[in-house]
Amino acid sequence: MNSRKIFYLIVSFFLFLLVQVLILKNMVIFGVVFCFLYVLYLLLLPLEFKVITMLLISFIIGISVDLFYDTMGIHTASLLVIGFIRNQWIKIITPTGGYDEDLQPTFLNMGFGWFLTYSIPLFLIHHFLFFSIEMLGTDLFIPVIQKTVFSATFVFIISIIVQLLFYRRRRGV
Amino acid sequence: MQRIFLFLYRIRAFLLFVALEAIAIFLIVSNNSQQGSAALNSANQLSGSILNTQSNVLDYFSLATVNKALVDKNANLLAELEKFKRPADSVYIELDSVLSASFQFKGAKVINNSIHHSQNYLTINRGSAHGIKEGMGVFNEEGVVGRVKAVTKNFASVISLLHTDLLVSSKVKSSEVFGSTKWDAADPKRAKMLYVPRHVSIEIGDEIVTSGYNAVFPEGISIGKVINVQPGKETNYLDITLELSTDFTRISYVYLVENNQEQELDELYESSSISNE
C-alpha cells in the first residue's frame, strides 16, 4: 500500500460519490431501475483490506450518499452488510491457485466469470436490503423484488462498462 | 478475564459491524418524525450548496416549462383579481378582519427532488434567513407539494406529498365531504383519500382540494381528481383513488404558505386534546 495507491483510492471515492449524487440519482428508469453504482467502489477495494477498514469505508460512503438522497441511514445500513460479508465471500469463491496479494478485484484482473459470481450476489443482497427497509410499513412486496432484480442487473452492466472504460488490467493498482 | 478480552478482540470486526449498524438504524428511526434536525439531510450547508450549484446548471433546461407555468398562474391570478374589482358606484364594507390576512406566502426554488422512494423529500433554496419555518405548507401552481420538515440557515427540507407518513386534510370541492389524503407508495401520480364513510356518494371526476381545517394550507388548493371509488375491503370507509394534480416529476418553483394563526389553533386543539393532522 503505497501513497500513490491511497491517493488513487481517495480520488476515486469522491468521483464515485459525485457521479452518484449528481447524475445517477436522477437516472431512474421506468421507476424500477435504480443505479447504485457506489456499491462498485466498495467491491473494487483491494483484496488486502481488512473487515474493519471495509466497515469504516462503507459507513462513510453510506452516510454521504444518504445525505443527498434524504434516506437517512438506509443506504448506510444496507452497505454495512456488504462491507461486512465481502471478505468472507471472497474467501468462499477463491479460485484454484488463490489470489495475488494487493490485487484489485476488477473483472479485468480476475476474469468475467469470477467477477459475475463475486458481484451479483452482493449487488442483490444490498439492493434487497435497501428496498425492503425503504418499503417498510407499506405492504408492497412485489415492487421490492422487481426493483431488486432489475436494479442489480443494471448496476452489474454499468459496472462492467465503467471498468472497461476507467480501469486498466495490471498487477496491483 | 483475559480470555473474555481475547474473545472480544477476536470478534472485534463483528462488534464494530453491530455498532455501526445500530447507528444506521437509529438514524432511520429518528428520521421518521415529521419535523426534525436538519443536520443530517440534504438541507445542510455542504450538500445544500452542492445541490444548489447543480440546480443552477440544470435550470436552463426547464426554463420553457417554468415560464409557461408562470404565465398560466398569472392568467389565473388576473382572472381572480377581476372578481374583486369593485364597480365605482358600489360601497365596500369589510366584514371580519379575522378572515383576511391570516396566510402569508413566500416563493422558493426546488434544488433536489425524489419521487421513486416510499418516503420522498424535496430540498428548497430558502431557509430560516428568509423566514421559512418548520411546518409551513408547500404548493405550486398545480397543487399541493408537501410540508416543511427541517430548516437550516439557507435551505429547507420538505416532506413531499409522496411520503407514506404525510396526511393532508382534504375535502371534495363540490360536496364538502372531508377526509385525509395519503400516498400509498405505489405510483407517483396517484394517492388515496382516507376516512370517507361508505354512505357518502362520491363521483369519479370529483375534484379534491385542501380543506383548510388543519391550518397548514389555506382552503381550496387543488390536490387531485377522483379516478376510482370502491367500498373498502377491510374498513368501513370508501377506498378512493386520486390522480394528483401536481406533476412531481417536474417541480421547479414552489410557494410556501404560513398561517399566522396556526399556533393559536394548535394550542386550542392541544388543550381540548384533539389530534390535528
Automatic annotation (TrEMBL), chain A:
Keywords: Membrane, Transmembrane, Transmembrane helix. The chain crosses the membrane at residues 6-24, 67-85, 106-129, 149-167. This is Rod shape-determining protein MreD. It comes from Mongoliitalea lutea.
UniProtKB/TrEMBL annotation, chain B:
Keywords: Cell shape, Membrane, Transmembrane, Transmembrane helix. InterPro entries: Cell/Rod_1, Cell/Rod_MreC_2, MreC, MreC_beta-barrel_core. It comes from the Bacteria. The chain crosses the membrane at residues 7-29. The keyword ATP-binding does not apply. The keyword Membrane applies. GO terms for biological process: regulation of cell shape. Pfam families: MreC (PF04085). Residues 110-258 form the Rod shape-determining protein MreC beta-barrel core domain. GO terms for cellular component: plasma membrane. NCBIfam families: mreC, PRK13922.9-3. Belongs to the MreC family. This is Cell shape-determining protein MreC.
